[in-house]
Amino acid sequence: MEKLRKLCTYVLQRRSHILNKNKLLIGYHTSSVRLWRDKVAIKIEEKLAVQHQGVFNEILAKKKADKTAFQTAIAYYIAKEKLYRRGHVEFIEAALHQMKEFGVERDLSAYKALLRVFPEGKMIPKSVWQVELFHYPKQQSCAIELMDQMEYHGVCPDREFGCILESIFGAEVHAFRKFRRMLYWLPKFKNASPYPIPYTLPIDPIELAMLALKRMVIDNQNKLTVWKTLEAEEEPLEDTFIVSAMSPEQKELIEEHPETKPLIVEGGYKTWLRNISQIYFVLRADPKPENFTKPPNDTRYEDEEDLFEFTTIFEEEKPKSVSNALSIHEQPDGTVLGMCITGTSSKNSIVTWIRYLQQTNPKLEKIPIVFQMRTPESGLQVIETDQEQNVGKFIS
Amino acid sequence: MFLRSRIIGQWQVCSKYNQLPQISHLRCFSSEASSVKTEESVTKTDKLQVKPVKGSKESELAKRYPSGITNEPFIKNLFLGKFDKEFLAYPEIEDVDEVNELNRMVQQVEKFFTEEVDSKSIDVNAKIPDDVLQKIKDMGLFGQQIPEEYGGLGLNATKFARIAEATALDGSISVTLAGHQSIGLKGLLIAGTEEQKEKYLPRLATGELVAAFCLTEPSSGSDAASIRTRATLSEDGQTYYLNGGKLWISNGGIADVFTVIAKTEITNQAGEKEDKITAFFVERAFGGVTNGKPEDKLGIRGSNTCEVHFDNTPVPVDNVIGEVGGGFKVAMNILNSGRFSMGSSSAGALKRLLGMTAEHATTRTQFGKKISEFGLIKEKFAKMALKIYAMESMAYLTAGVMDSYEKPDLSIEAAMVKIYSSEGTWMCVSECLQILGGQGYMKDYPYERYLRDARILLIFEGTNEILRLLVALSGCQHAGKELKNLVKKLRNPLMNPDVLVKTAFRKIRGKQLAGETTPLYLDGEVHPSLKEEADKIEDSVKMLQSSSDHLLVLHGNKIVDDQMNLKRLADIAIDIYAMTACIGRASRSRCIGLQNNDHEFLLTKTFCEEAHRNIKQLYHQIIDGKVKNLDQSYEHIADTIFKTGGYAAEHPLTRNW
User: Fold this and answer.
1) What is the pLDDT, as a whole number, of residue A14?
2) How close A212 gets to chain B, by Cα (Å)?
C-alpha cells in the first residue's frame, strides 16, 4: 500500500515536472509513456536534452537567431550523428523548445527539417501487433509532440510532410494517424473564421490598426482615414498616428444628431489580432428608445385594424408599407458613429481625433462631446468638454 | 367614334341556326353588359341588334361615374377570381374609312423610315440629322396624341400604337418621339389647365418646342419619392425657384420645355409643413437651365440623353401641372399612360427583323440543306412568332379598351404589356442573332444594332422588376381588401373554428378560400374551336386566385416584402392577360375569316398551352414554399455575395495546404 502511494506521488511529481518543463500541450501518449520509465533513463534523457540545448545556445551566441541558423543547427546534428542518430529524440525536443526563439515556430519547412532528424526505415512496424502496441513509443511520442506544436501554432502539414513521416514510421502507426487527423481538421479550421486575418501580420502599427478596424466595421461602405499628427498640423499635442473608421451613413447620422444631446467617446476597448492586442475607441450616441420599443416582427398591430390596408410605392409618396429601416449602426445599446485606433491611445490623441473629425463633420463642432475613457493604465476617467471647444477639463 | 365589337351569342345558338356567328356592335361600358345570361343572349342573337345601346343606360352610367366612365379593373379582379368577359371581345376600329386613313398614314411613315432614315449613320454619329427630324415634325409625328383643336393629329391609343409600329423601325427616333410626347408633354394632356394647353400644345404639336420629362436623379431611380430637386416659392407667391440636377434625361439636350418633378414645401391639412412632390412645366427660356454633354450609350445612340441642371430657374405658379403637392400622382400617371405602346412598337420592329432573318434562313445552305429545314431553327422561329403575336395582341387589346372609356383604369395592363414586350423583344432579337450567326455579330449588318437598341426596353419607363411589383401588389391589395375579415378569422382559429372547418373543406375540394365557385363559362365568349383554351384561362385564373389567397394568408401585410413570390404572381397574371388577348384576337380572326386565321389559331393554341404549363409550374412553386422553391437558397447565396463584396467561392485551383 505504502509502495503504491509512493508510486502515485512520484507519478504526479514527474508529470507536473514534465508539463512545467515543456509548457506545451502534451498529449496523452507522451505523458503516459514517460510515467512508466525508470529514474536512470530519465536522467540520461535530461542530460542529453541539456546537451542538445547547448548546441542551439552555441549557435545563438554566434549567429542571428533565424531560420538559417535553425537549419544550421539541424545540419550540424545530422552531420555529427551520421550513422546512429544517437539522442535524436532529445535533440528534437530541445529544438521544439527553441523554435520560438529562432522565429520558426510557424514555419512548416522547419518542422519538416526537424522531422528528417528521425532515422528512416527502421521504425516501421512489420505486423499489426507492433502497430497497435505503439512501436518505438518514445520516438512516436516525440513525433506526436512535434505535430502538437504545429497544431498549436496553426501550421498545417502537407503531403511532403506525410511522405517523410511514412518513410520513418510507416502509414499505420499512431503518429501517422495523428498526421491524418491534422490533415483533416486543420485546413477546415484555417478558414472557419468569418473574419479572416492574414497568416502573417504586418509589422507597421498603422497597417495593424487598419486591419483591426476593417475587421470590426460591419458597414462595407466604411472608409478608413489615417492621420499622422506631425503631418496634419504644425504643433501637434503629440507625435502619433490616428486611424479613423467612419462610413457615409455614420456621417449622415451625425448630421441628423440633435445639438442638445451629447455624443460619447468610449474606450479603450481591447481588440486582438492573433497575438497582438490593440486599444480602440468608439464615438457613439445614446440609443433612441423609440426605435426599439416595438419589435420589428410584431404582428399584433396589423391583425387588428390595418390588415391589407397597405399602400404601395406606386400610389403614395410615403407609403405605409415601407417603414424607414434602421441603419446597422443604430443598435439597442447605442448608435455607433465612428471608431479609431491611435498610436498612443492617450487622451490627447483621442481629442485630436475628434478635432480632425470636425473637418469633415462640421456638425460635430456644435454637439457637446463627453469623453468616457478607461485606458488599461488609468482606470475610469471622464473628460467633459465645453460646447465651443472640445478640449476641456477632466473629471476623474 | 370608336366602338368595341363583340360576338354576341353562343356557338350552340349559331349551330342551331347552322350559320356563322353574327357580329354586332354594341357599346359595352361595364361588366354588367358582359355578364349576360345564356337565355338573354339567345334573344339578342335572334333580334340581331345593330344599334348601340343608348339612352337610359348611358345616363345611369354617367351617374355612377361622375369623373368619367371607367372600366372595372381587369387584372385586379383576376386576383379575386373574377373575369371580365369583355376582354375576350377583341376591339376593332369601328369605321372602315378610319382604318383606311390610318393605313395610309402608316404607309407614308413606313416609307419615310425605310427610304430616308439612315439608321446606321444615326447610330454611328449618335445624332439624328436635323433635316430628318424636321421632316418627322412636318409629318406631324411630334403631336400624335395632341387633340386636333391644338394642332395635333388627335390620335387615340389604338392609332397611336399603330403609328408607333412604324416609327419603331429606328430605335433612336422612336425614343426621341416617346421622350417628347409619351412622357415629355403628357403631363399637360393629363393634368394641364386650359391656359397651359393653349399656350404650349400648338407649338409642341408642330415640333417647334421639344419636350422632355425630368424625374430621374443621381439618388433617385425607381424610387420617385426620394428626389432632391427643390422648388421654393418666392415671397410674393408668384414664382417658384427650381434647384437641382436631373440625370439621364431623354431629349435633355434638345428640349425647349421640361416637365420637372420637384419637391416643394406645403402645409398639409393638419397645419404642419411637409415636403411634397409637385410637377412643373419649365421652359428653357426661363433661364438657369443647363445640360451636360450627351451620354455615350450602348443602344438608341441617336437619341439625346444627358444631365439637366436647374439653377434658381424661376417658374411662374401658372406653370404648375396639376395641384401643388400632387406631383407624385401626375408623375405616376404620365409613366403609366406611356407604357402600352411599347408592345406594338416592339412588335413592329420585330416583325421586320423576323422577316430579314427568315430570308436568311431560307437562303443559307449548310450540310446540303437550307437551314430553315433544321428543327432547331424552326423552333426558334416558332417561339419568336408566339412572342410577337402575344405582345401585339396585348398591346392592341389594351389600346382598344383604353379608347372605349373616358377614364380608363389600365395602368396595370399597360405595365404588363411593357414587361412582356420588352423581355420578348430581347429574347427574339437575341435568337435572331443566333440564327444569323456571325452576320448577326458584325457591325456591317444592322442586326447587332437591334440588339443594342432592345436592351434599354427592359430598363426604362420603370424597370421590369418594379413593374412586376406594381402588377402583383395592386392585385394583392385588391384581393386583400375582400379577404380581410376571412384572414383575420383564419389567423385566430380557436375563436373561429367554423371558419377553419369551412375553409378546410373548401381546400380539400380544390376550391378557393373565398369568392364564387361557379364556372366562368368563358367558352361561350369565344369561337367554339377555342373552348380548350378558354378552359385553360379559367384554370389559370383559379390558380392565380388560390396562390394570391395563399400568400395573403401566409404573410398578411408583409406580402410586400416577399418579392420573389410577387414576381411569380405577376408572371401568372401576365400570362393570363396574354392568353386572353391571343384568344380574343384569334377568335375574332376566325369568326370574320381573316387571311391565315388558321395560323393565328395555331399560334394561340400553342401559346396557351405553353402559358398554361408555365402558370402551373409557378403555382406549384408558390404553394411549395420558400424552402422547396429555392427562394431561401437564393437569398442566402446573395447575402453571402454582398457580405464578401462579390463572388464568394474560391477559385477552383486554390489549394488549402
Assistant:
1) 58
2) 17
- Same-domain pairing of A125 and A217: no
Which residue in A317, A320, A321 has the most chain B C-beta atoms within 10 A of its own C-beta, making it the best mutation to test that interface?
A: A317
Residue B584 DSSP label: H
Minimal Cβ distance to B557: which of A314, A316, A321: A321
Contact indicator for B387, B351 with CB cutoff of 8 Å: no
Are B556 and A303 a contacting pair at CB < 8 A?
yes
Same domain, A19 and A110: yes
- What amino acid positions of B are annotated as catalytic residues? 461
CATH 3.40.50.1820 fits B466-473+486-640, yes or no: no
Report the top-level CATH class of B211-334: mainly beta
Distance CA B64, CA B31 (A): 13
Taking an 8 Å cut-off on Cβ atoms, the answer to whether B488 and A303 are in contact is: yes
Which residue of A183, A313, A316 is in closest CB contact with B223?
Answer: A313
Q: Are residues A126 and A150 in the same domain?
A: yes
A295 assigned to some structural domain:
no
Model ipTM?
A: 0.72
CA distance A167 to chain B (A): 20
Residue A137: count other Cβ atoms within 10 Å of its Cβ: 17
Same fold, B339-458 and B466-473+486-640: yes
* C-beta of residue A283 within 8 angstroms of C-beta of residue A357: yes
Report the residue from B483, B642, B656 with minimal CB separation from A308. Answer: B483
- Among residues A142, A157, A190, the one where a domain terminates is A190
Domain that holds residue A378: 205-290+325-395
Q: Which sequence spans correspond to the domains of chain B?
A: 5-69, 211-334, 339-458, 466-473+486-640
Same domain, yes or no, for A163 and A255? no
Q: Determine contact, residues B77/B515, Cβ cutoff 8 Å.
A: no
| CA dihedral for B491, B497, B499, B501, sign (positive or negative) | positive
| Each residue's pLDDT tens digit, A203-247 | 999 999 999 999 998 888 899 999 998 887 777 778 899 999 999
Tell me how crowded residue B430 is: count the other CB atoms within 10 A of its CB.
15
Q: Which residue of A has its CA nearest to B470?
A: A314
Entry pTM: 0.82
List the single residue in A302, A303, A310 with the smallest CB-CB distance to B477.
A310
What is the pLDDT averaged over residues B297-303?
94
* Tally of structural domains, chain A: 2
Q: Is A252 on the interface with B (CB under 8 A)?
A: no
Tell me the shortest Cα–Cα distance from B552 to chain A, in angstroms. 8
CB-based burial label for A227 (10 Å; 0-12, 13-18, 19+): buried
Interface test with A, best of B471, B476, B560, B639 (most A CBs within 10 A): B560
Give yes or no for a contact between B205 and B151, defined as CB atoms under 8 angstroms apart.
yes
Chain B nearest-CA distance from A97, in A, is: 25
Residue B197 forms contact with A (CB below 8 Å): no
A167 with A211, same domain: the answer is no
| CATH class entry, domain B339-458 | mainly alpha
Mean per-residue pLDDT, A280-291: 87
